[in-house]
Amino acid sequence: MTSDDSTPSAALRTEALEQLLVERGLVDPAVVDGIINTYEADIGPLNGAKVVAKAWSDPGYRRRLLEDGTAALGELGFIGTQGEHIVVVENTDKRHNVVVCTLCSCYPWPVLGLPPSWYKDPAYRARVVREPRAVLSEMGLDLDDDVEIIVRDSTSEVRWLVLPQRPAGTEGLTEEQLVPLVTRDAMVGVAKVAAP
Hints:
Elements: H1 10-23, H2 29-42, H3 45-57, H4 59-67, H5 69-75, E1 86-90, E2 95-100, H6 109-112, H7 117-120, H8 122-130, H9 132-138, E3 148-153, E4 159-163, H10 175-178, H11 184-188
Parallel strand pairs: 1-4, 2-3
């Protein structure tokens, strides 16, 4: 329940709606569970991590990814609904990108899976635009004062993906070894990739 206990939470309303649809034979719960699992496990952040690891390992792919994210993601088969036009931006020592959708929760599903609850939260959506450094710090990412923070606003026309910096000490790792290091939060820009 919400804080005043008068309105059911979104989770409870969703569960009740699903139960009604199942009872009326309009929805198969196994199909719903399968779709959720696909986006959480198969299509989820692992796809984005593969993209980042390839970009770190293959300079040609990195260049193509930054020039035309949608086409480069398509090379790896990561296209589809909510991924029709994805722009990739790179974090550097002096520039840090962070992604938000101020209107709703536009998000590049083919490479990041389902958006986390904090991404959809009105407080994150409003505050990260006004005070990105404070929000990032609250999420555990403290950036030096001389690092420029650019807030990228996803829309239904353009979704953003952050190419995080490759951590020091990973130069000898293969593309496959790099994949597990990359997190969803780093590809949204609210975290950095930690060295192993």
